[in-house]
C-alpha cells in the first residue's frame, strides 16, 4: 500500500512542477466569479449571491467536473456546515447539517432536483436520499443552502436545502462525452446533449451515465453496476415556458459497513488479517443466502445486488406571466421507487473462537469449526457474527408546488401552496451468519463435539447461518403534506433589504406495523443436510413469523415555521446580513414504529437558528464568514441495533459555531485556492432518562455524537500553463465521539487527494487520486453495537483506500 501511495504522489509531483507558469487566465480554471453568480434556492426570485441573506454555496458544472467527486456525498464535503460521512461507498452516506445529530442519512436537509425533493423524506429507513440520486454531466450546477430559509421553501429541512439543477437546451447545439477508468476496475461513460428543435422555441437536453467497477474495497464481484438517463423538453412562449422531463435510474451499489481495527488512543492499526483500506466483510464467498422459512418456502438473497433502486421520475414545470406584475409558477413530479437493499451488518466485533463457542452453550474445548464450502476442519483465531440484512421497499411520491409572485418597485411577494402525497412500504428479513474475522471471509459451521450428530443442539449453524430469519418486519408509512407559505423581499433602501417568510404546515402521517411471533423448523419435515432434522441445530430456534395483527397509527402535524433577515450591501463587493429562523422536522420513521401504541411520546423536532454573515465577492477573491447559533428540542435517537431492537431516546441540543468559505486566484492566476471549514461546539441538553435495562443515564453537557468540532477542506491548484493544471486537496475531519456517553473516541484524520488535467482544444485529459497516502480515517464506529468498548479491538467504518481515476472528456 505504501509503495502505491509513493508512486502516485511522485507521478503527480512530476507533472506539478514540470512546466513553466503562464500569466493569463487558464482555460481549465475552476471558478466562476461569485460576484456575478445568481442563486434561486431558498429565495423567492433569482438574486445575486451578495444580495441573498442566506448561507449558500454554489458549484457550476465546470467546477463539479474539475472536482470529479466519486459520489454526491464527496461533492457535499466542499460545503461548510455540512459534516459528511463518505465511507459507505457511492451511496448510503450520511450528512449532518450544523451539528444536528441523527441516526444518519439526510434527516434534516432536503435533497432536491430542480427545486423539488428527490423523495419527500430523505431519511426513511435504509432509504438515504443519495440512494436515488447520482451526479453526472446532466447537472448544470449545485446550490447548497444551510439553515436560514430552508424551512420556508421545503418541508422537514431546518438544516438546509441541497438543490441539483439540471441542464437545459439552448439555441446552440452542445454536448459532452466522458470516458473514465480507474485502478479498481472502473469503466464509466457519461454523455449529455442539448440544443434546439425549434430555434427560440423548443429545446431539449438528454444525458446520463453507465458505470461498472469492482469497488475500492475488494468484494470479489462487481461492487457498482448500473446507470441513469435523464431528458427534458422545454417550450418557450411570449409569456413563459412549459417543461416536461423524465429520469430513469437503475443502479446497484455495495454498501460498506464497519470492519475491525485496533485502537490505542488516537492511533489506529489494522486488525490482523484485515486490510483497513481495501478489506470488507461484503465478499463473494458469503454472498448467497437461501434458507427455509417457518411459514413455508425459502428466502433467497444475493449480496451482489447490494443497494439496488429502480427509480422512475416524471415531472413538469410551467411558468406564465399573468400581467400587471403577477406571474404563476407550478412544479409537479411523480416518483416511483422499487428498491432491494442487501447489506452485511456486523453483529458486534470479532470474538476468540473459544469464547464464541462458549457463549453459544458449548463447554470447554468441545467445539469444532468447519468450512461450509469444503467441509474441512478449520481453527480460526477469531470468528465474526455478521448480520445478513435484506430490505425491500416500494415507494412513491406525488408532489406539486404552486406559487404566485407579485413584483413591485421595492421588491416582491411570493405566495404558494405545496402538496405532497407519499408512501413507503417495507419488508425486512434479517439473518445472522458466522464467518472468519478476516477480509475475504469464509462461512463457518460450528458444532458441539460432546454431542452426537443426532442430538438436539449438536449444531449451532445451518450452512453457516447462526440465526435464520431472526427478524422479519412488515410496515408502512404514508404522508399527506398540505403547506401554505408566504415570502416577502423588500428593498428598504438601495443597499438595505429585508426578507421575511412564513410557512404553515398541516401534515398528516399514518401507517401500520404487523405483529410477529417466533417459530422453528423442528416439526417441518425438513432436514439440515438430507439426513438430520432441524432438532439437531439451534439456528432455527428463534425464527420470526409474521402474524395477522396490524397496529395502525395516525399522527398529525400542525405547525408554523418562520424566518426574518436583513441584508446590507456595503458596496458592490461587500455585504453583511443577519437572519433568525424557526423550523421543524417531523418525527422519523423509526420513532413512529417504536411508539405506535403511544404516539404522545414523540414530537416534531423544533429548531431555532440565528446567523450573522459577512460576504466579500470579487473576481479574484471570495470570503464568507458566518457565525451561527442553534437550539433543537425533542430530538429523537432511533438507531437500530444488530439484534433488531432500537434505541428510543429524546434530547435537546445547542450549537455555537462559525462557517468559513473562501476562494482566491493569486499571482496573475498562477495559484487558485478554495477553502471551507467549520468550527462548532454541539452539546446535549436535558438528556437524562432510563435505559431499556432499567439503569439511568445523564448525558447533559456531553458533546453530540459523531460531530467534529472542527473540519475543513482546502484545495490549492497551480495553473502550470493556460492548458495544464494540477491540484492537491486536504480534507480534515476532527476528533469526535461515537456515542452519547462520549466513551468511544473517533480520532481526527486528514485525507489527501491530488490530480492533474490538460486541455487540448475541446478535449480534456485528467487524472484524479483520492486518499493518496492510504490514511486510516474512521467516520463512524458501530452504531448498531450499543455501548462502545473504548480502546482495543473496535468496529469502525474507515474511508476508502487510495485509488486513481483517469478520464477523457470531449466538449462539442
From TrEMBL:
<dbReference type="InterPro" id="IPR037066">
    <property type="entry name" value="Plug_dom_sf"/>
</dbReference>
<dbReference type="InterPro" id="IPR039426">
    <property type="entry name" value="TonB-dep_rcpt-like"/>
</dbReference>
<dbReference type="Pfam" id="PF07715">
    <property type="entry name" value="Plug"/>
</dbReference>
<keyword id="KW-0813">Transport</keyword>
<keyword id="KW-0998">Cell outer membrane</keyword>
<keyword id="KW-1134">Transmembrane beta strand</keyword>
<comment type="similarity">
    <text>Belongs to the TonB-dependent receptor family.</text>
</comment>
<keyword id="KW-0408">Iron</keyword>
<keyword id="KW-0472">Membrane</keyword>
<dbReference type="InterPro" id="IPR012910">
    <property type="entry name" value="Plug_dom"/>
</dbReference>
<feature type="signal peptide">
    <location>
        <begin position="1"/>
        <end position="22"/>
    </location>
</feature>
<keyword id="KW-0675">Receptor</keyword>
<keyword id="KW-0798">TonB box</keyword>
<dbReference type="InterPro" id="IPR000531">
    <property type="entry name" value="Beta-barrel_TonB"/>
</dbReference>
<feature type="domain" description="TonB-dependent receptor plug">
    <location>
        <begin position="49"/>
        <end position="160"/>
    </location>
</feature>
<keyword id="KW-0732">Signal</keyword>
<protein>
    <submittedName>
        <fullName>Outer membrane receptor protein involved in Fe transport</fullName>
    </submittedName>
</protein>
<keyword id="KW-0410">Iron transport</keyword>
<keyword id="KW-0406">Ion transport</keyword>
<dbReference type="InterPro" id="IPR036942">
    <property type="entry name" value="Beta-barrel_TonB_sf"/>
</dbReference>
<feature type="domain" description="TonB-dependent receptor-like beta-barrel">
    <location>
        <begin position="274"/>
        <end position="768"/>
    </location>
</feature>
<keyword id="KW-0812">Transmembrane</keyword>
<dbReference type="Pfam" id="PF00593">
    <property type="entry name" value="TonB_dep_Rec_b-barrel"/>
</dbReference>
Amino acid at each position: 500500500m505504501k509503495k502505491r501511495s509513493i508512486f502516485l504522489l511522485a507521478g503527480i509531483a512530476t507533472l506539478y512542477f514540470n512546466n513553466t507558469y503562464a500569466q493569463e487566465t487558464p482555460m481549465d480554471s475552476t471558478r466562476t466569479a461569485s460576484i456575478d453568480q445568481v442563486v434561486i434556492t431558498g429565495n423567492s426570485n433569482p438574486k445575486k449571491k451578495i444580495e441573498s441573506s442566506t448561507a449558500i454555496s454554489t458549484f457550476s458544472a465546470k467546477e463539479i467536473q474539475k472536482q470529479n467527486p466519486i459520489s454526491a456525498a464527496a461533492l457535499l464535503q466542499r460545503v461548510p456546515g455540512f459534516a459528511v460521512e463518505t465511507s459507505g461507498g457511492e451511496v448510503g452516506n450520511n450528512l449532518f447539517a450544523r451539528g444536528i445529530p441523527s441516526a444518519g442519512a439526510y434527516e434534516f436537509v432536503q435533497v432536491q432536483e430542480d427545486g423539488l425533493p428527490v423523495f419527500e423524506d430523505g431519511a426513511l429507513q435504509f432509504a438515504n436520499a443519495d440512494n436515488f440520486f447520482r451526479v453526472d454531466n446532466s447537472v448544470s450546477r449545485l446550490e447548497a443552502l444551510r439553515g436560514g430559509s430552508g424551512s420556508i421553501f421545503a418541508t422537514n429541512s431546518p438544516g438546509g436545502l441541497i438543490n441539483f439543477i439540471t441542464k437545459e437546451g439552448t439555441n446552440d447545439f452542445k454536448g459532452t462525452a466522458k470516458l473514465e477508468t480507474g485502478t479498481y476496475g472502473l469503466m464509466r461513460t457519461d454523455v449529455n446533449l442539448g440544443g434546439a428543435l425549434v430555434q427560440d422555441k423548443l429545446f431539449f437536453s438528454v444525458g446520463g451515465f453507465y458505470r461498472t467497477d469492482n469497488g475500492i474495497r475488494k468484494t470479489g464481484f462487481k461492487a457498482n453496476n448500473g446507470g441513469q438517463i435523464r431528458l427534458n423538453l422545454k417550450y418557450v412562449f411570449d409569456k413563459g415556458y412549459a417543461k416536461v422531463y423524465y429520469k430513469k435510474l437503475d443502479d446497484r451499489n455495495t454498501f460498506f459497513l464497519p470492519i475491525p481495527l485496533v485502537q490505542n488512543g488516537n492511533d489506529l492499526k489494522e486488525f490482523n488479517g484485515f486490510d483497513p483500506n481495501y478489506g470488507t466483510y461484503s465478499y463473494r464467498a458469503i454472498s448467497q443466502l437461501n434458507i427455509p422459512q417457518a411459514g413455508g418456502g425459502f428466502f433467497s438473497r444475493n449480496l451482489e445486488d447490494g443497494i439496488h433502486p429502480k427509480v422512475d421520475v416524471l415531472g413538469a414545470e410551467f411558468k406564465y406571466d399573468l400581467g400587471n406584475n403577477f406571474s404563476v409558477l407550478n412544479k409537479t413530479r411523480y416518483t416511483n421507487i422499487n428498491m432491494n437493499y442487501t447489506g452485511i451488518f456486523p453483529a458486534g466485533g470479532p470474538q476468540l473462537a473459544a469464547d464464541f463457542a462458549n457463549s453459544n452453550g458449548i463447554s470447554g474445548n468441545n467445539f469444532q469449526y468447519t468450512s461450509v464450502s469444503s467441509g474441512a476442519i478449520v481453527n480460526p483465531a477469531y470468528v465474526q457474527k455478521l448480520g445478513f440484512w435484506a430490505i425491500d421497499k416500494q415507494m412513491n411520491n406525488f408532489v406539486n408546488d404552486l406559487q404566485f409572485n407579485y413584483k413591485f418597485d421595492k421588491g416582491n411577494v411570493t405566495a404558494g401552496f405545496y402538496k405532497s402525497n407519499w408512501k413507503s412500504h417495507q419488508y425486512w428479513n434479517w439473518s445472522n451468519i458466522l464467518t472468519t474475522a478476516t477480509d475475504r471471509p469464509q462461512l463457518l459451521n460450528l458444532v458441539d463435539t460432546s454431542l452426537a450428530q443426532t442430538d438436539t443442539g449438536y449444531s449451532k449453524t445451518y450452512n453457516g447461518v447462526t440465526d435464520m430469519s431472526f427478524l422479519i418486519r412488515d410496515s408502512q408509512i404514508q404522508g399527506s403534506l398540505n403547506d401554505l407559505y408566504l415570502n416577502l423581499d423588500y428593498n428598504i433602501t438601495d443597499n438595505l433589504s429585508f426578507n421575511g417568510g412564513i410557512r404553515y404546515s398541516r401534515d398528516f402521517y399514518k401507517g401500520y406495523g404487523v405483529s410477529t411471533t417466533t417459530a422453528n423448523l423442528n416439526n417441518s419435515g425438513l432436514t439440515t443436510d438430507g439426513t438430520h432434522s432441524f432438532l439437531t441445530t439451534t439456528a432455527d430456534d428463534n425464527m420470526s413469523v409474521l402474524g395477522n395483527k396490524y397496529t395502525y397509527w395516525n399522527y398529525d402535524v400542525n405547525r408554523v415555521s418562520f424566518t426574518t433577515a436583513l441584508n446590507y450591501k456595503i458596496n458592490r463587493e461587500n455585504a453583511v446580513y443577519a437572519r433568525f429562523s424557526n423550523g421543524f422536522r417531523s418525527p422519523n420513521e423509526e420513532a413512529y414504529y417504536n411508539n405506535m401504541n403511544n404516539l404522545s411520546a414523540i414530537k416534531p423536532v423544533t429548531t431555532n437558528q440565528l446567523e450573522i454573515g459577512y460576504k466579500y465577492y470579487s473576481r479574484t477573491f471570495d470570503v464568507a464568514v458566518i457565525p451561527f447559533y442553534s437550539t433543537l428540542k425533542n430530538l429523537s435517537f432511533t438507531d437500530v441495533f444488530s439484534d433488531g431492537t432500537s434505541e428510543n431516546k429524546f434530547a435537546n441540543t445547542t450549537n455555537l459555531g462559525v462557517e468559513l468559505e473562501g476562494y482566491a486566484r493569486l499571482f496573475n492566476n498562477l495559484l487558485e485556492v478554495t477553502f471551507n471549514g467549520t468550527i462548532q461546539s454541539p452539546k446535549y441538553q436535558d438528556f437524562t432518562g432510563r435505559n431499556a435495562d432499567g439503569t439511568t443515564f445523564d448525558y447533559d453537557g456531553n458533546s453530540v455524537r459523531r460531530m467534529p468540532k472542527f473540519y475543513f477542506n482546502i484545495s490549492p491548484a497551480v495553473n502550470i500553463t493556460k492548458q495544464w493544471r494540477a491540484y492537491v486537496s486536504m480534507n480534515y475531519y476532527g476528533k469526535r465521539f461515537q456515542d452519547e456517553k462520549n466513551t468511544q473516541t473517533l480520532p481526527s484524520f486528514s485525507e489527501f487527494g491530488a490530480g492533474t488535467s490538460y486541455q487540448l482544444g475541446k478535449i480534456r485529459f485528467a487524472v484524479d487520486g483520492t486518499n493518496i497516502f492510504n490514511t486510516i480515517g474512521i467516520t463512524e464506529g458501530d452504531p448498531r453495537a450499543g455501548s462502545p468498548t473504548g480502546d482495543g479491538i473496535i468496529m469502525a467504518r474507515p474511508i476508502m483506500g487510495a485509488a486513481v481515476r483517469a478520464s477523457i472528456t470531449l466538449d462539442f
